[in-house]
Amino acid sequence: MSLTRLAALAEVLVLAVAAAGCGKSQSTADKTKSWADGMCNALVDWQNNVKAAGQKVTQGNLSKSTLQDAANGVSDANKQLRDDLDSLGKPPTPTVEKAKSTLNQLSQELSTNVDKIREALGNISGNNVTGAVTAVAAAAQAMGQDFQNTASQLQDLEKDDTWSNAFKSSESCQKLSG
User: What are phi and psi of 163, to 5 degrees?
Assistant: First the structure.
């Protein structure tokens, strides 16, 4: 699975969250929209950074250097995602707390797989990348499965009307679903 495919899976993750209803109290709705907007901004940035990190690899430039650069880019994107999610603070509803917890778990799983990629890249001798490509593909596939699992968990959030409305009205979330 390519890094570009991982970015596409990020879109699926957000589409799963963004698919629902309307709000409760005005202040809770506004706070939830603001939190959802921040989360979607973080995911848009992550998606763009992962696409940029994998650009040379997806163009077929498979060398130790390009694979290491891509791994560094994905690692940096994961760290930024984690920092951005942390900076959102306490979510305004219990449902959003579940979303944040789920996304933090995803971030940890992504970091674990980036570590596996770095380990594989560290075992490359010269520019013979064949073994590393297999390990990188396995880690990328695991990242894709992590996204699918997260999307399934986030689908439960559709039951919360405030949450649903927040995603429908957030411009950042619309960028992800558009």
Answer: -60, -45
Contact residues for 43 (Cβ-Cβ < 8 A; gap 6+)? 10, 13, 14, 81, 176
- In one-letter notation, the amino acid at residue 12 is V
pLDDT in tens, 22-39: 444 447 778 888 888 888
Residue 176 has a pLDDT of 67
Q: What is the pLDDT of residue 94?
A: 72
Percentages of the chain per state (helix, strand, coil), in multiples of 5: 85, 0, 15
Q: 34: which 2 tokens? A: 């603001």
Q: Rounded distance, CA 176 to CA 107, Å? A: 18
pTM: 0.69
pLDDT score of 23: 41
Predicted pLDDT of residue 22? 40
Which H or E run contains 160? none
CATH number of residue 120's parent domain: 1.20.120
Range of the domain at 20: 3-177
- Average pLDDT (148-161) is 70
CA-wise closest residue to 35 among 107, 108, 98, 118: 98
- The candidate with the shortest Cα–Cα distance to 124, out of 142, 138, 136, is 136
